[in-house]
Amino acid sequence: MTTGSAELPVAATAHRPLAKKRGRPGDAVFHGLLLTALGIALAALAWLFISILSNGLGNLSWDFITSRPSSNPARAGFISALKGTLVLMFYTVLVAIPVGFAAALYLEKFASRTRDDLEAKLRRRERRIAERRAAGAGGPGMAFAQVRLAWSRVWVRVGPPVNHVLDVNISNLAAVPSIIYGLLGLALFVAIMGFSKSLLAGGLTLGVLVLPIIIISAREAVRAVPVSIEQGAMALGATRLQAVMRQVFPAALPGMLTGSILALSRAIGETAPLIVVGGVTYATREPSLNPLEADAQPLFAMPLQIYSWADRPQQAFLDLAATGIIVLIASLIVMNLLAIWLRNRYTRRW
Amino acid sequence: MSTLSPSPGGIRAGRRRPLEGVVLLLLGAAGVVSLLVTAGIVFTLFNEGSGFWREVSVVGFFTGTDWFPVNDQFGVLPLLAASLQIAAIAALVAIPVGLGSAIYLSEYAPERLRRVVKPILELLAGMPTIVLGYFALESITPAFQNVGVIESGRIYSMLSAGVVVGLLITPTIASLSEDALRAVPRSMREGAFGLGATRRVVSTRIVLPAALSGVMASIVLAISRAVGETMAVTLAAGVQPNLTADPRDPAQSITAVIVQVSKGEAVRGSTIYESIFAIGAVLFVVTLLINLVAVALVRRYRTIYQ
Hints:
The structure holds two protein chains of two kinds. Chain A is mainly α. Chain A has helices at residues 7-15, 25-56, 62-66, 79-111, 115-134, 139-174, 178-192, 199-223, 227-235, 240-267, 272-277, 302-310, 315-346. Chain A has a domain at 65-111 and 197-346: MetI-like (MetI-like fold). Chain A has 13 helices and no strands. Chain A starts with 6 loop residues before the first helix and ends with a helix. Residues 1-15 of chain A have low confidence and may be disordered. In chain B, a hairpin with a 4-residue loop joins strand 1 and strand 2 (73-74). In chain B, helix 4 (77-108) packs parallel to helix 7 (158-182), helix 10 runs antiparallel to helix 13 (271-301) and helix 12 (254-263) runs antiparallel to helix 13. Chain B starts with 19 loop residues before the first helix and ends in a 5-residue tail after the last helix. Helix content of chain B is 71%, strand content 1%. Chains A and B meet through helix 2, helix 4, helix 5, helix 6 and helix 7 of A and helix 1, helix 4, helix 5, helix 6 and helix 7 of B.
C-alpha cells in the first residue's frame, strides 16, 4: 500500500457520522410520509379541541354548572348531570376497588405460584403430618391438617391451569366492548335482581366494567414491590398473609390508586352502558347526592346529558353539548393530574 | 419469589392465625369474581335472549337482509355489515396514520419529541367516545359536505363514523406498535446501519419484521375496539338499518341498534327486548374471535431476542 496523500481522505470519512449516508430519494419520501402520518394524528386532535372550545366556551359559566336541565337552551345547565356522575362514581368505586385490589393481591401473591412451588408445599405438609403423627398427635387439629393435605394434592394439579385461565380471562374481559357490560347490567341488576333503572344499577354496572382494568393495573403495582420486602417480614416471623397485607399492600397502594383513578376516568365518560341499563336523557329533578337513595334516582350523568344535547338538531343544543364536553374533559384532566401527583408523591423506587 | 421462600426444613414462616383462612378465602373469592363476570356475560346474553330464538329462526336471523322489528323482520346482516364496514374504514384511516406515527416516534424522532408526543396521542385514546361522536357530527360530516364527498343535507354517514372511529383507534395502534418497535434490540439496528443500510431500510426491513407480532396484535385489538364502538357510531352513522356498499350512506350498526332499543323502554320478555341480547351475543362472539386472533398472532410470530 502506498502511503501519503491517499490516507487522508480515509481518515476523514471515518470521522463523518455514519448516519449521514447519501440517501436515495425513497428515503426522503418515506421520512416525509411518516411525518405526515404523525402530523395527521396531531392535527386531528388539535381540530377536535378547537372545534369543542370554539363551540362550547361561549356557554361556559358558573350558571351553566349550577343550573338544571331545561328545554330552553339559554337556561339549560349541568348540575343534575354532575350530581348523577358523582353518585355513579361512588358505587363504581365501592364495587371495583375492594374486589379489584383483593383480586390483584390474590392473583399476584397467592395464585401465581408455579407447579414447583405447589409441590414443595405439598411435600412440606406431608412431612409435617408425618412428624406430628410420630409425636402421637391426633384430634380435630390432625383432621384439619389432613383436609389441607388433600386440598394441596388436588391444587398441585388443578392450580396452575386454573390460574392461567384466570389470567387469560381478565385480559379478555378488558377487551369486551363496553356496551356488552350494559347488557350484563340490564339483565343482572335490573331484570334479575330487580333494582330500578337507577343510579344504583348504573354505578354497579360501571363498577363491573372497570373491574378488569383495575385488576390489571393493581397487579402491576403489586408486582413492582420487591420480593425482599415480603421475605424480610417472613424472616421476622410474619405469616405469608401478614407479610402481604402489612408490607406488600401498603407499599403497592399508591400505584394501585394511580391505576384506579385512570380506570375511573374511563368510567366517567362511558355512555353506552348507561343508556342500555336504562339511562334517561332528561332529568326531571335534581338527583340527591345521598348514595342510600340511589336506587330511587333516575339514571342520569354527564355523558348522557351530552348525548341528549348532541342528538338534537338545533345548533344551540349542539353548542351546549360542546360546553358539557369541556366540563367532562376538565374533570378527566383533573383526575389524570391527581393520578400523576399521587404517582410522583408516593411511589417508592426500590 | 418461589425459590426464595423459606426453606422447608429451616426457619418457618409464622404459624397461621385462626382468621387467616377466612381472609385468604375472601382474597381468592375476589380473584374468582372475574370468572363470574365472564360467566355472567355469557349467561345473560344467551339466557335473556333465549326467547328470541324461539320466535326467530336461526337461519333467518343470520341470512336475513332486513332489520325491521315492527314487521318481525330480524335479519342481522345489515347491522353486521354496517359494523364491519365502519370498522374497515376506521382501519384504513388508523393503520397508516397509527403505524406511520409509531415508526416515526420509534425510529426517527428525537427522544424529547417522543416524550412529548406520546402522552398527547394517548390523550386521544382516553377521550370519551361521546366526544368523538360530537366531533363527527359537528366537524367531520360538515367538512365532507364542504368538499362534496357527502351531499349536503345528509347528516348521517358511515364514512364520518368510520373516520372518527379511525381517529379513536389510531393511538391504540400508535402506542402499542411503538412499544413493540422499541423492544427490538438496538444491536440489530446497528448491525444493519453498519452494513450501510439507510434509516428507511432499517425501519422497514429490520425493525418492522422483528416487531411484527406486536404490531399485528395492536392492529387487531384496535379493529376489535372499532367493531364494539358505540356512541361515535350511533351519533355519526345514524339509526336507519341499511344494507349498502356505499360508505357515504347512513347505516345502523349492531351497537347503535342496542342503544336505540334501550332508549325505547322495551318491555322485558318482548321480542324486541330479547333481540338486543341476541345481537349483543353476535357482537360478543365477533369481538372475542378478533381478540383471540390477536393472542394467537402474538404467540405465532413472537421472536425472543437476548
